[in-house]
Amino acid sequence: METLSAGTNRDAETPLSDELIEWADFVFVMERAHRTKVEKRHRSVLKGKHVIVLDIPDEYKFMDPHLVRLLKTKMRRWLPIEDK
After folding, report:
1. DSSP 3-state assignment of 53?
2. Cβ neighbours of 26 (radius 10 Å)
3. What is the per-residue pLDDT across 16-70, written as a single tens digit (0 to 9) for each?
4. Which of 77, 63, 66 lies closest to 28, judged by CA?
5. N or C: which terminus of the chain has fewer CB atoms within 10 Å of its end residue's CB?
6. Is the pLDDT of residue 75 over 80?
7. In 10 A of CB 75, how many CB atoms?
């Protein structure tokens, strides 16, 4: 399994691109507003793709322990995640 991270803002360290969406089987976003951005900007390459909203407020700092726990919990449905 391969994963990549990208941001929905154009000034993100790695902005989401059409190429990344084409590469992905699933696109996970934290908030519904992120899904709306993705759908507006990348409509032409989203056909057949799954955009999944995790319903996690985008208010955490990078690698915040609480965010990591939330992500592990929410992602269990799609990924084999071990608790460590």
Report:
1. strand
2. 11
3. 999 999 999 999 999 999 999 999 999 999 999 999 999 999 999 989 999 999 9
4. 77
5. C
6. yes
7. 15
Residues 6+ apart with CB under 8 A from 18: 42, 44, 45
CB 69 within 8 A of CB 45: no
Rg of the Cα atoms in the chain: 13
Q: What is the 8-class DSSP label of residue 84? A: -
Amino acid in the structure at residue 16: L
Would you state the pLDDT for residue 78? Answer: 84
Q: Is 43 exposed, middle or buried (0-12, 13-18, 19+ CB in 10 A)?
A: exposed
